[in-house]
Amino acid sequence: MRQCACGLAVSGEGAVLERAEAVEAAGTPGPPPPTDPVLFRPTRRTESAMPPSDRSGRPDSSYRPDPSDRSAARAEGSLLAELQPVVEHNLHRHLDVAKEWFPHEYIPWGQGRDFEGPLGGEAWTQDEAKLPEVARTSLVVNLLTEDNLPGYHFAVAEFGRDGAWGNWVNRWTAEEARHGIALRDYLLATRAVDPRALERARMAHMSAGYDRPDGFSALHAIAYASFQELATRISHRNTGHVSADPVCDALLARIAADENLHMVFYRNLVDAAFELAPDRAMEAVHDVVTGFEMPGSTIKDFGRKSAEIAIAGIYDLRLHHDSVVMPILRNLRVFERSGFGPAGEAAREELAAFVARLDSQATSFADRREGIRAARAKRAAAVAA
Asked: Could you give the CA distance from residue 335 to residue 5 in angstroms, rounded to a whole number?
């Protein structure tokens, strides 16, 4: 579960766009906003003096259960036990279709040379960065989030370290680690970024760690991974296209293929959970979609970086709605299923309303982005003249 270079938050979209529009109007970089909006932290349903359960009888999505609740723990343990055969089947499926590959074969080592330091190489300079700035930003954001893999492994392994689940977590971790190795090797071999700044950013981000949201159940984590892995796949592919470097494009296409297989694994588990515990599965999907936030959102200046990534079309609200949220919901037949109780039906109704708002907000963002792009093109033409 890594960060993809995502688009604007539903709640923070306006602030970022307003700043970008002001910058274009002024023709100068301008100061950063007082706070950077977090991506995809949608506006939740609110009611005054909301108790732990809302009027529909289902827990409010912002409410997290007490970890000491033994009945909840027993229910989760029972569901995980029932999912074990599904985990084992999908683990074998993954191992059958996953292709072995080697990061070193995708790195243009011939472009590299020693950096300054004990080896007496050459100091990095800004003019060595040949990739477009937004491509470098997206690559670094994705890499820094990959670097927090130990935290993600711990969070997922908490649900079980034995049997098929433990075997899957270890395999998934190994594949994700390969992505981080390849991304860093590419950036350093091509001297695309300042290596000292990259290492300092890694130290800062890893030192902050990663915490799974309080009360996030195993089912929440599985549902979250389904959407997040697909988002990452799309971000990698589009970053490769924007890079205008065939080597970078090929590497990110290879990484994206892994991410797609990871998505299929987790999505299949969610599908099975709908058969075993439909209301709980529906509530988990509701909570994940309406509160979607990437783990890399703690990266310094993440709001501004993600705004540029969204403006470039690498990952934005329209892609999030059309290419991530809706395909998974359709595959899971969320809006066609029957057999829900009152809590499940309430969660589904809220999810449908949220998705409709997301679609509208994505259209609004796309319209305003065109204005920003036009302003930038006009300014570039004036400078060239």
From this structure: 28
Residue 163: which residues within 8 A CB-CB, separation 6 or more? 84, 87, 88
What phi and psi, each to the nearest 5 degrees, are found at residue 99? -100, 135
Q: In Å, how far from its chain's centre is CA 194? A: 24
CB neighbours (10 Å) of residue 380? 10
Residue 105 DSSP label: G
Q: Hunting for tokens 């954001």 — which residue is that?
A: 141
pTM comes to: 0.82
Which of the 8 DSSP states describes residue 33? P
CA dist 8 and 22 (Å) reads 17
For residues 83 and 170, give the distance between their C-alpha atoms in angstroms, rounded to a whole number: 18
SS3 104: helix
Helix locations, the chain, DSSP H: 13-26, 70-97, 133-147, 149-157, 163-189, 195-208, 218-243, 246-276, 278-290, 302-311, 317-319, 326-331, 342-384
- CA dist., res. 353 & res. 350, Å (int): 5
Residue with tokens 């229910």: 75
Triad 371, 240, 248: Cα angle to 5°: 140
DSSP three-state, residue 95: helix
- Summarised one tens digit per residue, pLDDT across range 120-141 is 999 989 888 899 999 999 999 9
- Each residue's pLDDT tens digit, 10-44: 444 455 555 555 555 544 443 333 222 223 333 33
Q: Which amino acid is at 227?
A: F
Q: What is the mean pLDDT of residues 277-298?
A: 88
Six token digits for residue 315? 């990952």
Q: Would you state the structure tokens that stand for residue 19, as one six-digit string?
A: 């700043």
Tokens of 110: 């011939």
